[in-house]
Amino acid sequence: MVAAAHLAKAGLRVEVVESDEVLGGAVSTVERWPGVRVDRGSSAHVIIRHSGVVEELELEEFGLRYIDCDPWAFAPAPVPGDPGPDGQPLVFSVDLDATCASIAAACGEADAAAYRRFVEVWGPRSAAVVKAFGDRPGPVQLVRHLWPIGSGRPRTPGGEIATDFLGSGDALLDRWFTSERLKAALAWFGAQSGPPMSEPGTAAMVGWVALLHDVPPGHPVGGSGGLTQALAARLAADGGRVVLGDGAARLLVEGPDGARRVTGVQTVSGRRVTAPVVVAACHVLATRTLAGDDAPPALADADPPLGNGFGLVLRCQTNALPDYPGVGDEALQGLQLLCTDRAQLARAHGDYLAGELPREPVPLAMSFSASDPTLAPEGQHVVTIWGQWYPYALADGSSWDDLAEDAAQQLVAAVDRYAPGFADSVQRMYVQTPLKLEQELSLLRGNVMHVEMSLASMFSFRPTPALSGHRVPGLDGLYLAGASTHPGGGVSGNSGRTAARIVLADRRPAARLRTGLSAGVRTRLAARAAR
After folding, report:
1. Any idea what DSSP says for residue 391?
2. 196 & 242 share domain
């Protein structure tokens, strides 16, 4: 949708074909129960609020309204049985002074001072990462954005620039802080991209918190799909159109070997949409299926790491908000990082690697109905619970259809440990297992990031080195966008904007062409796309 909006804004004729009946894929909201609006995928938007996409497309003029998550995160005090001493909850606000005061009360003055310095050092670094995410993924662009933050500056308490960026999040946290509770909260935030904070290259995922003291995460009024609806309104205003329920079935390709190019798409209904440009924003392997025998080697041989699932999501209708001891309603505005020790994260990830359900699930809860009354009737609330590192394929061959209910109850109980009484408040629950995420949102193997977000799958390696430039070598006119491409998963709009810029740059020598197609094609499964 971002690619389509930018192309239409530039004057091209654009059509988006979508196989789903709901626009937006994992950035959409539906009425799950009478009067209750529930997100199907993302809920808290982080990267797009720093990318400039909202401002460039003037989406506020098309109905987008964000509610700031402030405080943007909360981490509870340990409960009996957790390691470490009891203490105060941690509350992370846009106000850095208030955040440091919370850290001082919970973890000590030394860590509060260290956190203030951490934000000072990592603010410019993370801002440079934002710029790199918004640019093409080549090495020249990467150096251009990151080099200035390390040149001509004295060594910082956080270590050398290269060591920090290539090192692990855990190592970074250990260098800066002493409190395990603070480290656990920041590690759990950083781990939302997928890799555990013990992996190389994850330090920058922790460093992103520095930016949230300027612009926090946000939740669109009415649900995550408010962003998609604003994009659709923008697209329509520029003459573009969206067709739902009739996604691309195959690419139309013409020309001799060595000079093959796309000429449009054929949809599931058999309709042929001709255009000199197709932007495929679906999973890269779904794009390969759409190309079929016309896929050139770079696409036909693509084998990016998909991983073994990602997480389990619970969408709960409740008659009360979570009640965390020692903190008021401010804890409910943002991300509820229910983790007090990194050992919890290590155990959950270890079970995941073994192909097993976590013995001790680690939840992240969000309850945006606390600040957005449009989501549920009076007296009712929507609480989303995210549990990370749930395998798509289990080592013992168990079926997710058999495991879903027990896994969901275990995750609810994990929230109830920190917010006693929460389990009793749950009235209805919609469970999205890794298998369900694949079936419902075309997220192959349940990976919400499409392709693993490890260091070896980022920048010029995403989704593969041959396809990292958003073009498909050997098939002119086909461009790639979406979470499979740089900079990866999450709600950012960066890949669509970059793909649109490349399309426009490539078209300048042939300005006489006045038509284009952005096929933000989504398929329920790659196999179905071939049908």
Report:
1. -
2. no
